[in-house]
């Protein structure tokens, strides 16, 4: 996070500094060759800043560069050969393209785009290339001035770029605004040919793609054509690369109308994002909440779940959780389907004390958006890890993807990773952390490679429960005896108090005696359902197909409710 900020600040200073310096040299001195060289360097710096920070507002720098090069051209070309009309037209055209880029990009980003569908959005492609094209034209104009060549070639190239932008972006956008497609857009037609029976709807902050990635393999195993509907374009490259299904980005509520084709009957959701309401307005669809994890955290009993037609849960414990939190939802809305993502977790009944070279998986969660859901143990994580190292354990450290959003948490995590790196170097013990644990290994890989878990309150615990191996839970809210009442899953684990004062005792029970072994197996059924291990995912697959068949048998498709205001 800090490195990213440094890169952005560096290129910001570089592009702005070179733009100002080149203008001053060209406007106030007679050192035109130096000024033109600085202008070319400034254009390269602006291009680099676009790569580092695509959302940067880059208008002032190109305008300064263009103005400086125009002045330099006027100074360098003899009066007798200077065509003031052509130079003025070139400057106006370049400035016009520069000023038009941002609004054109804004308009293009409101267009529907797709991947894995054979359809491309020409307005967005043109908008993406307009900024770099202006920089290339600027370099051409600077070269023309340096060589004292006529300005007409630069003017012709600028006019051609402007014409291309008009034909490829401005025209199509204007035409769509004036003449709505009425369901005949290229994306809509391609989706009609694909005939998807269900969609996965997703809207979330950056870094949340894991919520979709965990479900894609199981949606594909349903064996019916489907699509993914995204609201934020930043997820498109990652998610479209992870599935063969069409992935469509609908930036506005109204644009969703283009993607909801008649063959659709069911919509799945993986979170309680505010934009879910933009899809739930389609009353003819059966709306099913899948969640992206099952834990005793408050979000797993969100009252918003009541707006869905069906709620798929892993086990009876999830249904009880809603009731325990005062959320009244009719029982018939729930379907116990297990948590298919755990099917590849190896189940072990071997006593923990019999395992040599014990490996402990530590999964600190993030701080959450407010104090009520802050269960992060990273402030005391270094104490915990040092104690594990003293016991001769190998540590797998896998932090929550959102950890970097909190600078304090990021620093705490970095210190723990440094501790593990130093210990690995000095002892040869194969600790796993950083990208090796978060990207090279899946959560299932981490679970299978470990003998015990230490976790904060999170969905990792219920996933780990499937393995049958022991776990400990951190009580970061300091509730003491009341902690298990609010977080029942901790009752089958060993609870670490908020200050780690009982750390030695908990580690002794976790890694040696394990008196809660039998309790865990009973809890496992309550939380994860009672499905055969060999066909565990069939609980979800069979229920999903049942909902699709039921929705397909439904009568007439009504019109959608009016689109909400974005």
TrEMBL record:
Give the stretches traversing the membrane: 56-75, 81-100, 130-149, 155-175
Which SUPFAM superfamilies does the entry mention? UDP-Glycosyltransferase/glycogen phosphorylase
What GO molecular functions are on record for this protein?
transferase activity
Fetch the Pfam families from UniProt. Answer: Glyphos_transf
Looking up InterPro entries in the UniProt record yields:
Glycerophosphate_synth, TagF_C
Record's keyword terms, sorted: Membrane, Transferase, Transmembrane, Transmembrane helix
Note whether Lyase occurs among the keywords: no
This protein is called what?
Glycosyl transferase
Q: Which organism is it from?
A: Plantactinospora mayteni
């Amino acid at each position: 996070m800090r490195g990213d900020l440094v890169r952005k600040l560096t290129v910001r200073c570089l592009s702005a500094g070179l733009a100002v310096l080149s203008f001053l040299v060209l406007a106030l001195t007679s050192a035109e060759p130096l000024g033109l060289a600085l202008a070319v360097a400034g254009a390269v710096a602006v291009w680099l800043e676009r790569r580092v920070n695509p959302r940067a507002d880059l208008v002032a720098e190109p305008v300064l560069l263009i103005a400086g090069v125009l002045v330099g051209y006027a100074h360098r070309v003899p009066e007798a050969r200077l065509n003031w009309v052509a130079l003025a037209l070139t400057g106006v055209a370049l400035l016009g393209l520069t000023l038009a880029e941002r609004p054109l990009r804004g308009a293009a980003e409101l267009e529907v785009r797709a991947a894995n569908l054979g359809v491309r959005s020409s307005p967005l492609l043109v908008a993406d290339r307009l900024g770099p094209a202006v920089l290339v034209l600027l370099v051409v104009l600077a070269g023309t001035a340096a060589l004292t060549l006529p300005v007409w070639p630069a003017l012709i190239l600028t006019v051609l770029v402007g014409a291309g932008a008009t034909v490829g972006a401005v025209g199509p956008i204007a035409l769509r605004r004036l003449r709505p497609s009425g369901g005949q857009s290229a994306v809509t037609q391609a989706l009609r040919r694909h005939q998807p029976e269900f969609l996965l709807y997703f809207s979330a902050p950056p870094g949340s793609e894991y919520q979709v990635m965990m479900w894609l393999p199981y949606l594909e195993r349903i064996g019916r054509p489907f699509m993914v509907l995204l609201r934020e374009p930043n997820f498109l490259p990652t998610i479209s690369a992870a599935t063969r299904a069409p992935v469509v980005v609908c930036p506005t509520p109204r644009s969703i109308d283009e993607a909801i084709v008649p063959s659709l009957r069911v919509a799945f959701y993986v979170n309680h994002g505010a934009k879910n309401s933009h899809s739930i307005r389609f009353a003819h669809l059966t709306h099913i909440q899948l969640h992206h994890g099952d834990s005793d955290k408050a979000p797993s009993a969100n009252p918003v779940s009541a707006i869905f037609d069906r709620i798929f849960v892993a086990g009876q414990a999830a249904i009880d959780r809603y009731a325990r939190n005062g959320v009244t939802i009719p029982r018939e809305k729930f379907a116990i389907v297990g948590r298919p993502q755990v099917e590849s977790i190896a189940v072990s009944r071997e006593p923990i004390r019999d395992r040599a070279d014990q490996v402990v998986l530590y999964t600190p969660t993030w701080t959450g958006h407010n104090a009520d859901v802050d269960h992060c143990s990273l402030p005391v994580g270094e104490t915990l890890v040092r104690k594990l190292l003293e016991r001769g354990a190998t540590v797998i450290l896998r932090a929550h993807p959102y950890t970097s959003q909190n600078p304090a948490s990021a620093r705490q995590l970095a210190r723990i990773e440094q501790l593990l790196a130093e210990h690995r170097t000095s002892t040869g013990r194969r600790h796993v952390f950083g990208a090796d644990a978060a990207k090279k290994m899946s959560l299932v890989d981490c679970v299978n490679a470990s003998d015990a878990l230490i976790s904060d309150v999170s969905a990792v615990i219920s996933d780990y429960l499937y393995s049958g191996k022991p776990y400990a839970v951190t009580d970061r809210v300091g509730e003491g005896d009341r902690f298990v009442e609010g977080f029942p899953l901790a009752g089958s684990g060993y609870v670490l108090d908020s200050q780690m004062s009982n750390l030695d005792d908990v580690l002794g029970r976790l890694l040696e005696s394990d008196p809660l072994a039998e309790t865990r197996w009973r809890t496992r059924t309550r939380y994860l359902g009672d499905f055969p291990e060999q066909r565990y995912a069939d609980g979800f697959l069979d229920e999903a197909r049942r909902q699709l068949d039921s929705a397909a048998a439904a009568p007439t498709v009504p019109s959608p409710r009016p689109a909400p205001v974005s």
